[in-house]
Amino acid sequence: MNTLSTKASRVATCWSFCDGMANLELLLQKCDSLIHIKKLQARLVTLGRFQSYPSITIKLLELCALPPVANLPYATTLFHYLQTPSTRHWNAVVRGLAQSLQPIQAISWYAAISRSPQHVDALTCSFALKACARALASSEAMQIHAQVVRFGFGGDVLLQTTLLDVYAKVGNLGFAQKVFDEMPKRDLACWNALVAGLAQGSRPSEALALFWRMNEDEGLKPNEVTVLGALSACSQLGALSGGERVHGFIVDAKLDTHVIVCNAVVDMYAKCGSVDRAYRVFESMNCGKNLITWNTMIMAFAIHGDCEKALELFQKMGRNGVRADAVSYLAVLCACNHGGLVDYGVKLFNSMAGGGMVPNVKHYGTVVDLLGRAGRLQEAYEIVKSMPMFPDVVLWQTLLGASKTYGNVEMAEMASRKLVELGSEGCGDFVLLSNVYAAHKRWDDVGRVREAMKRRDVKKVPGFGYIEVEGVIHKFLNGDQSHVNSCEIYSKLDEIKFRIKDYGYVAKTNHVLHDIGEEEKENALGYHCEKLAVAFGLISTSEGTPIQVIKNLRICDDCHVVMKLVSKVYNREIIVRDRARFHRFQDGFCSCRDYW
User: Fold this and answer.
1) Rounded CA gap, 131 and 144, in Å?
2) What's the number of CA atoms in the CB half-sphere (13 Å) around residue 8?
3) Per mean pLDDT, which range of 95-109, 119-133, 433-447 is the poorest?
4) Cβ distance 179 to 159 under 8 Å?
5) pTM (2 decimals)?
6) 434: which of 50, 196, 449, 479 fits an S-S bond (Cβ 3.0–4.6 Å)?
7) 170 Cβ contact partners less than 8 Å away, ≥ 6 residues apart
């Protein structure tokens, strides 16, 4: 007799004495399927005792609403059969809905119990808040928070931790910080929630500071969840020394036994510009490697422009019996894209279907970018037309960018129209089209585009960059004069400009506004954030020290030329991470081979 038959037999023998609380609880322990639950409910109804044992019906609801059964339609039907459901009955359903694929329903049930004769308790609020976190329901979370205070649950540490987690996940970091500061007692969980929230909410410096405060000032030992938030913060900032320090803590605390932590370390080193360190961690992992490990390392090589190593690792992954997934193919396609391996990339893309892999919109976007960068715009457009899904905004932006690079006005106008149809209001879309017109000296069209930007109140995304010096992150905006060393920085820029002119440097002003003079155009280019950051790096670090800059936008043509020349004139390695990839400048050359 198999296990299932044996279990069914044991349950069947209980039906004959389904009477009395003890026997009912014994039977409940053996219920592990909807069939058993329905039989027990039927027995209770037959005996006229369904309403007599609230604790039993609560347990039935919990069994229905939660895994492994998790049949919420039946749970809600069962609930509505109850004549006077208690708060615990409500909680069972709210909890199940909060964990379901439609957590927003849990919030509706919470609102319903608030209007019922029963009163919500701390658990009801907790389950509803967890639903808010999953549904990213910010305003509803604030309303429930107000009720938490009104009902007198504010002293519940677990509930406060849940509130903190909700605010962190919905991006309301001000409220998250306020809840954290007002908590009379903090466990590890609340620190984790705030560190992760700050890291994910574009406040990485604060996340990193909180991580070290927790460890050094509060005497609390971060766990694997905490270090993931700290590593994410280092990755965003490009803070290599900070990342090394966090890695050292991980090793000392023996948290490198968790594969998810090691994967994050690999990713951190790659995003902080040290792909060699990333690979050393990858090779030395004693906790084993999973598919995410391989994908992370392949993508690391891809964004650093080392397509040969990325392809080699992709093949090695297959030889090691690890089956590639959609992310693996996306990573290796990115490698082909950055390395200019156009034909191989197209061949790989076409092979996906043969391997049982259905390309998604990101795969199509990458191959369109691959063809577009190579100037094969018509082929890229044919790929767009052949897509089985609707082309998204990013894909049309990719085609627009390629049209700008190769000066294809007709393709640029078509892509621009598609973006307007899709409701895109991105500043970059207008700027790219304007630049296409400017390159062809079609100044009337440039003016028309800029008028459209004013009419639609399109805001330009400000360019900014980070540089880490002696563990301190310095941020620069384009034309920034707020830094304490601003005078020295601008003086160094003047020196740079003077020295690189001896190597034939001429500012690339062809895409700057046409209605200002040539000198003003050079000044507009000369004070881009990455130039300011590199100048600061030159005056604040010793000779021979690599300079690394993180930039939020794509590096412009002029800055790319300047970085190559600075690396040669000052004998410095300069690493710039823009929004798409790394550029490593050495002795007048870039790792991208001027293909980006």
Assistant:
1) 11
2) 8
3) 433-447
4) no
5) 0.81
6) 449
7) 132, 133, 136, 137, 138, 141
Nearest to 551 by CA among 477, 487, 442: 477
Three-state secondary-structure class, residue 136: coil
Residue 68, preceding peptide bond in cis (omega within 30° of 0) = yes
Identify the weakest region by mean pLDDT among 12-16, 140-144, 476-480.
12-16
Looking at domain 186-288, its CATH architecture is: Alpha Horseshoe (1.25)
When pLDDT is cut at 50, 70 and 90, the band that residue 329 belongs to is very high
Closest CA to 110 of 99, 121, 136, 102: 121
Closest by Cα among 346, 334, 350, 396 to 596: 334
145 token code pair: 């928070």
Residue 203, phi then psi, degrees to nearest 5: -130, 55
3-state secondary structure 238-291: CCHHHHHHHHHHHHHCCHHHCHHHHHHHHHHHHHCCCHHHHHHHHHHCCCCCCH
Residue 503 to residue 238: CA distance in whole angstroms: 31
Residues recorded for the chain: 596
Backbone phi and psi for residue 184, each to the nearest 5 degrees, phi listed first: -70, -25
Beta-sheet pairing, 589-590 with 574-577: unpaired
Per the CB < 8 A criterion, the answer to whether 282 and 269 are in contact is no
Mean pLDDT value across residues 139-163 = 91
Residue 444: CB atoms within 10 Å: 7
442-450 LR contacts (CB < 8 Å, sep 24+)? 442/409, 443/514, 446/514
Phi-psi region of 48 (alpha: psi -120 to 50; beta: other; left: phi over 0): left
**Looking at this protein, which amino acid is placed at residue 14?**
C
Hey, which of 167-176, 241-250, 505-514 has the most confident mean pLDDT?
Answer: 241-250
**Cβ(545)–Cβ(489) below 8 Å:** no
Beta pairing, strands 547-551 & 472-477: unpaired
| C-alpha dihedral, 3 to 7 to 8 to 13, nearest 10° | 140
Domain ranges of the chain: 186-288, 465-590
Question: In this structure, what token pair is assigned to residue 593?
Answer: 């081979």
Residues 161/194, Cβ–Cβ less than 8 Å: no
Residue with tokens 């600061």: 536
Tokens, residue 40? 């027990």
Element (H, E) at 436: helix 427-439
Q: pLDDT by residue (tens digit) across 486-525?
A: 999 999 999 999 999 988 888 876 555 544 444 455 566 7
Helical packing angle, 204-212 and 188-200, nearest 10°: 160
Nearest to 384 by CA among 408, 335, 418: 418
Angle at 187 between CA 125 and CA 193, to 5 degrees: 65
